Amino acid sequence: MDFKNTLLMPNTQFEMRANLGQREPLIQKRWEEIDLYKKVLEKNKDNTPFVLHDGPPYANGNIHIGHAFQKTLKDFVLRYKTMAGFYVPYIPGWDTHGLPIENEVTKKGVDRKTLSRAEFRKICREFAIEQVNKQKVQFKRLGILGEWDHPYLTLDKSFIADQVKVFGKMVERGLIYKGLKPIYWSPSSESAFAEAEIEYMDKESKSIYVAFDMISDKFKDTQLLVWTTTPWTLPANLAVSAHPDIIYAWFEANGKKYIASKNLLSNLKQILDFEEVKIIKEFKGKELEFEQYHHPLFERVSPIILGEHVSDEDGTGLVHTAPGHGEDDYNVGRKYNLELLSPVDARGMMTKEAYQYEGLFYEKANLQIIEDLRTNGHLLKESTIKHSYPHDWRTKKPVIFRATPQWFASINMIKEDLLKAVAEVNWHTSWGELRLSNMLKDRDDWVISRQRAWGVPIPIIYKDDEPVLDANLIYHFADLFEKHGSDIWYEWEIKDLLPKGYKLEGKLTKEMDIMDVWFDSGTSYNILKRRGLSYPADLYLEGSDQYRGWFNSSLTCSVATNGVAPYKEIVSHGFVLDGQGRKMSKSLGNVVDPLKVMSEQGADVLRLWVASVDYEADVRISNDLMKQVAENYRKIRNTVRFMLGVISDFNYETDYIGWSMRGQMNRYMTDKYHMVAEKILNAYDNYKFHEITRILMPFVVNDLSAFYLDYTKDSLYCDDKNDFERRSIQSTIFDILYGLLRLLTPIMPHTTSEAYQHLPNHRFEDIYLENMPHVAGIRDQKIHDAFQLFENLREDVYRHLELARAQKLIGKSLEAQVDLVIPENIFEALKYLQIDKSLHKILIVSKVNIKLGDKIDITVSKMNGHTCERCWNVFEEVNENHLCDRCQQVIGGLK
Fold first, then answer.
1. Residue 447: pLDDT band with limits 50, 70, 90
2. 4-13+616-763 CATH choice from 3.30.390.10, 3.40.50.720, 1.10.1370.40, 1.10.730.20
3. Which of 51, 26, 14, 34 is nearest to 768 (CA)?
4. From CA 839, how far away is CA 831, in angstroms rounded?
5. CB 766 within 8 A of CB 753
6. In whole angstroms, how far apart are CA 450 and each of 99, 348, 518, 658?
7. Is the peptide bond before 536 cis (omega within 30 degrees of 0)?
8. How far apart are CA 321 and CA 239, in angstroms?
9. Within 13 A of 165's CA, how many CA atoms are on the CB side?
10. pTM over 0.70
């Protein structure tokens, strides 16, 4: 006889096969239809606000895995804080100016030379907006909710107006100036670069030792030994620097006299093949001050000067000094009133000030200069070294130090304020404060001008070639930009830009440089003020590279104009690498495309990967790693599906049984869930997302799936529908499932949204309108102490069952009888758990006999008897229908 139809089997429309690639867009469409984002804002509108300010990604190309990683981390915070009851608006933003967009437009065939600046800017603007719209769709595909119809763009008129006002305030404070100074210059981009735009890569450079002929009565017929890895800067040499306190040696070697650091003499002897070295005199470097020498290439006489930057760790202890090509050189040159000579143009070509090298690209000039030094006898040694060298982060080509007229924002004037502000920030990453503080301590003034077309114009008028630094005039330009757009700077005549009645006579010209894009994004905190949100922001969350980038520029602009950091707390993450820990690149073929992952496996699987890695360090992703994540997702989904299935006939209003009445094992599982939930909520509060999956998976896989949901199947399937124990189990499962779905929503919102629609008696249109669960903690410690004793016993029984199965003594565990000898403390624990008479159900065997003894002894044997054809337990007796008493009563009740 078939009793299958009498069993209360799981029943749910929540499918086992996730099919997330197709299902998630439909869920997102539903979110849009019900305007879910606005609904959660309305729900929490009177609550404490929490503002995560979005650092703007660059609007160029499809999003990559780093974008997906970062935006998902932010969404974890946004969703958690929302469900924790905060008012959490989210305004996504984009960085839309700069060289990469100019380059992309040019690649598309736009001839910059045939267009006016305003026409070229219009094309750049259209391209940037196209990129924003493309990336917007891709970010939304991750499941992120926010002000997608009203993001902030650095090209917006209002944004530019606010940015220019920040510039005006800094002018008002005297922080903005124009000066000639050596800065990072990229010949490949023909533009100045900030330190944040520099990346260090290995480069081979020429290393040479040069002899400079001294003009001295004190050191007759003597040469200074100088080492350099930038021979192309020798035409700009205006001094040789010595350290005032280093001990130098005047010595004779190979028939000539030289001066170098005494400490480096043994190295130099080996490098330069000096056979016999005879020291004539030892002295401190200060004795060399104002001695003179002949330039080794030109008819130029220059002095020896003193500088604290000189060291005797490598080289010769004497430093070739070109104030137009180096920071230290510039500083020591100012002290000695040296000229700021920089005979290299914007393209890296040597100028007429380099005499015979005019017209040569600086790297070619290197070779010619070395050859000339060899010819005239001043070259002592030439070699090639490999070292870390600054490169243009966009073109990946070397940059140089070059003195050019640039606009600067003074860091030195506000450095103490910046350091004080850093100390007041809550640094989630412990080393973050030290890292940014050290950067600020070592940072020179900020180069804020760029020689490009696509960006925010530096709104400065020149009168007779002198800049007019009038803050009120700049505020006027800001108002014009907000009304008419910043292109008017290039389209209108100066007289039309000036306020009515503003007296400015003489030769008037406009500054044509644009602002550094880091100044753009660095002023983005203004969007919070403009949109009526709390400022400073509660949180900035970005990659660790932003300590030198956005964290830094935002801090500078905010402290300069508002006196506070723009953020209360900083969270930073590492980079995404491949499975072997390598940087991703198309050439290596190791790029993981988030769009492909979402299409094939789903955004929730990608999000679960983000939640499974420790983001504070560099993280790894690969197909194999994603398979592991997908397997964890499958386990979670299947467990949720089973729980939904076994409470399909459960009505919370009529069937729910409270914690105090539902029996000890059910109480224990409810409390165990509360313990897990408390740890998960704490992990969310501390942004420890990887701990959530570490806490969650053992609970789902071991405590729920392999234990509680396994042994309760007998009651759930076979007991009477309204049996008190069955309703107690359903009440427990409902509590746990309802809590887990809410706890999981920040991480896998599509799956929890879908599951919530199948949850009995759900209250809202979507789970995102729910709050995070309240946790009760442990309500009866004795239950937990007793369960620990039972759990140890259970593990022992399982091991014996496995041995019996291996010996072919039993097949399924229901075929087993277990005879236990246990100490009294374990027996008392079973009694307290109220399972001393129902232990066979918990262990999923057909019979358990218990005896008291001094130590545990377990015997497994095959249960002799008859199998109930409905519940498959083995009994000593069954009735004529081959049913046990319980099943017969249930069937009788059904009749």
1. confident
2. 1.10.730.20
3. 34
4. 10
5. yes
6. 9, 16, 11, 68
7. yes
8. 5
9. 18
10. yes
CA distance 273 to 279: 16
Structure tokens at 179: 């000066």
Common-topology check for domains 4-13+616-763 and 206-386:
no
Give the max Cα distance, the chain: 127
pLDDT at 865: 93
Handedness of CA 52, 53, 58, 61 (dihedral sign): positive
Is the separation of the CB atoms in 751 and 744 below 8 Å? yes
Q: Give me Rg for the CA atoms of the chain.
A: 37
- What CATH superfamily is the domain 206-386? Valyl/Leucyl/Isoleucyl-tRNA synthetase, editing domain (3.90.740.10)
Residue 456 CA: distances (Å) to CA of 436, 524, 561, 720: 27, 13, 19, 74
DSSP track, 214-257: EE-SSSTTEEEEEEES-GGGGGG--EEEE-TTSEEEEEEETTEE
- Tell me, which fold does domain 782-864 have in CATH? hypothetical protein PF0899 fold (3.30.2320)
Q: Which of 548, 465, 583, 461 is nearest to 511 (CA)?
A: 461
pLDDT of residue 640: 97
Element (H, E) at 30: helix 20-33
Residue 401 CA to its chain's centroid (Å): 30
More confidently predicted of 200 and 360 = 360
Residue 196 pLDDT > 70: no
Place of tokens 């005979």: 343
Structure-block tokens of residue 546: 């932003």
Per-domain residue ranges of the chain: 4-13+616-763, 206-386, 782-864
User: Is the Cβ–Cβ distance between 789 and 814 less than 8 Å?
Assistant: no
d(CA 148, CA 90): 9
Q: Per the structure block, which two tokens stand in for 270? A: 């080996």
Give the C-alpha distances (Å, rounded to integers) separating 197 from 62, 394, 399. Answer: 21, 8, 11
CA distance 575 to 616: 9
Q: For the chain, how many helices (H) and strands (E)?
A: 31, 31
Q: How far apart are CA 519 and CA 671, in angstroms?
A: 52
Return the closest-CA partner of residue 67 out of 467, 542, 740, 600.
542
Q: Coil, strand or helix: which one is 850?
A: strand
User: Mean pLDDT throughout 27-52?
Assistant: 97
- Paired tokens of 826: 């374990």
The average pLDDT across 204-211 equals 94
**Helix, strand, or coil (residue 135):** helix
Give the CA dihedral 135, 138, 139, 143, nearest 10 degrees: 160
Whole-number Å distance between alpha carbons of 537 and 791: 48
pLDDT level of residue 194 (50, 70, 90 thresholds): low
With pLDDT > 70 as the criterion, what percentage of the chain qualifies? 99
From residue 38, how far is each of 35, 612, 829 by CA, in Å?
Answer: 6, 30, 52
